[in-house]
Write a structure and sequence with these properties.
The protein is α/β, with parallel strands linked by helices. Helices cover 40% and strands 13% of the residues. It has helices at residues 26-38, 48-60, 72-82, 99-107, 126-132, 152-162, 213-223, 247-281, 315-324, 340-352, 367-376, 389-404, 406-411, and strands at residues 65-69, 90-94, 111-115, 137-140, 165-169, 177-178, 181-182, 189-193, 206-210, 285-286, 293-295, 300-304, 377-381. The strands form three sheets. It has a seven-stranded mixed beta sheet with strand order 1-9-8-5-4-2-3, sandwiched between helices. α1 packs antiparallel against α8, α2 (48-60) runs parallel beside α8 and α3 (72-82) crosses α7. The radius of gyration is 22 Å and the shape is globular. It binds pyridoxal-5'-phosphate (PLP). Residues 71-73, 97-98, 100-101, 143, 169, 171-172, 193, 195, 206 line the site of pyridoxal-5'-phosphate. Residues 71-73, 97-98, 100-101, 143, 169, 171-172, 193, 195, 206 line the site of pyridoxal-5'-phosphate (PLP).
């Protein structure tokens, strides 16, 4: 006798909400009031809170330099420009990512070349990356999807062999670590986002980390209207714009940083526990974790759904049933190369640049991405991992309950 599903009129597993996001307190309030009263709301001679945050965040991520900007999308664009990547260049990106990874390339005039992902991790497949390299390839952008580090050993080795830049899109990977080192500056440089949903949140915000002083200096110029450090205010040496962070953002971010490690530990603990139980007790398969991943950032808890384990129930019906049990969940991305915005951007660039057959006219061949988007991907958000192990038990119980009654649901 299976329990009656909430979707079919039974009682839900859970009625209590999961922890709310963002978390804030007296630290944010005090920092905002101090910023208000200081009158220093934007750029200042000594950098103020922005400079303090840049240094603190870079240190937290094992990097020598940090350059704050106003969001993660812009961070990617600044990082590309700082490497002089633009018209006529190709940049390899995973096909399973947020659109900003692709549009950052298009906005600087480079073509994003979509690379398929690994079936277990949903991160860029290094073998597929290697095959996609052409003489025009200037950079690769591994995205640590959901906060799970990509295979940086192989990506770095292939990139070094071909002399291309490694720009980490760590916008979802605050605190994530590969072989004991935090992501971001494992490659040449990396970008973070502090948009509302992110694990460190200022509403909006972004930051570039690197160990390379010259690169850090170029990021500074690009983000500050192409100025140079000891130049005059109206002296513009590099093509850049105003991508500067405000002191308001930095004030919030410094306060958020004080609780970051505690929250990251809690996500890691709950994430590991949930992954183990789901894998052992249900048909959901959590993102596979390489043993070299020493910390998962857990911006998202991603699992793979296979209808065969659920009596053939399609994913959308499963998601609706799980939501009815009181468990927030979603299906995640669509293949970016199918989006009119991306296709239009690529067509426009190809028309503007002499591009003899360097980019396929047909859609990229990314079967794993297609499957992840159309059938498999299931997302839980980071704030759900901030509660107790009993909250995780509810998720497992709800998945198991829907699984047990999936045949019934299929017929309903
Ligand atoms: C993988 C990835 N790249 C880039 C971005 C862009 O960051 P932002 O929203 O701060 O512009 C995001 C944020 O949603 C992201 O998830």
């Amino acid at each position: 006798m299976t329990e009656k599903l909430a979707a079919l009129g039974g009682p839900p597993v859970r009625t209590r909400p999961f922890p709310a996001w963002p978390i804030w307190g007296a630290e944010e309030r005090t920092a905002l009031m101090e910023t208000l009263e200081s009158g220093d709301w934007g750029i200042t001679a000594d950098g103020g809170r922005i400079a303090t945050f840049e240094q603190a965040f870079a240190e937290t991520h094992d990097a020598a330099y940090g350059q704050a900007v106003f969001n993660g999308s812009v961070a990617l664009g600044v990082a590309l420009r700082a490497n002089d990547i633009g018209y006529g260049d190709e940049v390899l990106i995973p096909a399973y990512t947020f659109m900003a990874t692709a549009t950052a390339c298009l906005m600087v005039g480079a073509i994003p070349v979509f690379v398929d992902i690994e079936p277990g991790t949903y991160n860029m497949d290094p073998a597929a990356m290697e095959v996609a390299i052409t003489p025009r390839t200037r950079a690769v952008i591994p995205v640590h999807i959901g906060g799970l580090p990509a295979d940086m050993d192989r990506i770095e080795a292939i990139a070094a062999q071909h002399g291309i830049i490694v720009l980490e899109d760590a916008c979802q990977a605050h605190g994530a670590a590969w072989k004991g080192r935090r992501v971001g500056a494992i490659g040449h440089l990396g970008c973070f986002s502090f948009q509302s949903s992110k694990n460190i949140n200022a509403g909006e915000g972004g930051l570039i980390v690197t160990d390379d002083e010259a690169l850090a200096e170029r990021c500074w110029s690009v983000h500050n209207c192409g100025r140079i450090r000891d130049g005059r205010w109206y002296q513009h040496e590099v093509l850049g714009s105003n991508y500067r962070m405000t002191q308001w953002q930095a004030a919030i971010l410094l306060a958020q940083l004080t609780r970051f490690e505690d929250l990251a530990r809690r996500r890691e603990e709950n994430g590991r526990y949930l992954a183990k139980r789901l894998a052992q007790e249900t048909g959901l398969q959590p993102q596979e974790r390489d043993e070299r991943v020493t910390q998962h950032g857990y911006h998202l808890f991603i699992s793979r759904y296979t209808p065969v384990a659920f009596s053939g129930l399609p994913r959308d019906k499963f998601l609706a049933a799980l939501q009815a049990e009181g468990i927030p969940c979603s299906e995640g991305y669509v293949p970016l190369y199918r989006m009119p915005a991306i296709q239009g951007g690529v067509q426009r660039l190809k028309a503007a640049v002499d591009w003899p057959g360097a980019y396929p006219e047909t859609l990229p061949d990314c079967p794993v991405t297609e499957r992840a988007c159309a059938e498999e991907g299931i997302w839980f958000t980071q704030a759900m991992l901030l509660g107790t192990s009993a909250d995780m038990d509810d998720i497992v119980a709800a998945v198991a309950k829907v699984q047990a009654a999936s045949g019934e649901l299929l017929e309903a």
